[in-house]
Design brief:
Elements: H1 2-8, H2 11-24, H3 27-30, H4 35-43, H5 50-55, E1 57-60, H6 68-80, H7 83-94, E2 108-109, E3 112-113, E4 116-120, E5 129-131, E6 136-139, H8 145-157
Parallel strand pairs: 1-4, 4-6
Antiparallel strand pairs: 2-3, 5-6
Helix pairs in contact: 7-8
EC number: 2.3.2.26
Keywords: Repeat, Transferase, Ubl conjugation pathway
Enzyme class: transferase
Length: 165
């Protein structure tokens, strides 16, 4: 039933959308992009307000804004990630690189309003995991800034090879 609703139930609409898209942009021009890159090209790259993002983030399982791992996380985002990498992180965690017009306070999940969330979960040797329906990042309790930065960057840059829920 789910497969029918997602694939076959909207196939006529999807085909019409694709046909219209291909009338505007030749398929050979978009063939070089994967789905993530194509979304960034189409949606554009808005400048992310890191302060707004941080202000509208929830923490779980022992993390809080003053926790060392969270301090390292925001330091990596603010000082080491460029805007494109921030957008890819947002896409990794939420499934989209678009920021709501109203800012991060208006972020939505699969079932309505849902803030960006960071939960302490995993081993310090694990990569971060994303739950896109819930805008949640499972961030292991890393033991150093460099370890967090390397693991986060690897997860974000290579997310097409890792399982995203």
């Amino acid at each position: 039933m789910v497969r029918w609703r997602v694939e076959r139930g909207v196939s006529q609409q999807s085909q019409s959308l694709l046909k219209g898209f291909n009338e505007v942009i030749e398929p050979r021009l978009t063939a070089v992009f994967d789905a993530r890159e194509l979304e960034l090209v189409i949606a554009g790259t808005a400048e992310i307000d890191v302060n707004d993002w941080r202000k509208n983030t929830e923490y779980r399982s022992g993390y809080h804004d003053g926790h060392p791992v969270i301090q390292w996380f925001w330091a990596a985002i603010e000082h080491r990630f460029d805007n494109e990498q921030r957008l890819r992180l947002l896409q990794f965690v939420t499934g989209t690189s678009s920021i709501p017009y109203e800012g991060f306070a208006a972020l939505r999940g699969s079932n309505g309003p849902r803030k960006f969330c960071i939960e302490k979960l995993g081993k310090p040797t694990s990569l971060p995991r994303a739950h896109t329906c819930f805008n949640r990042l499972d961030l292991p309790p890393y033991t150093s800034f460099e370890n967090l930065y390397e693991k986060l960057l690897l997860a974000v840059e290579e997310s097409s090879t890792f399982g995203i829920e």
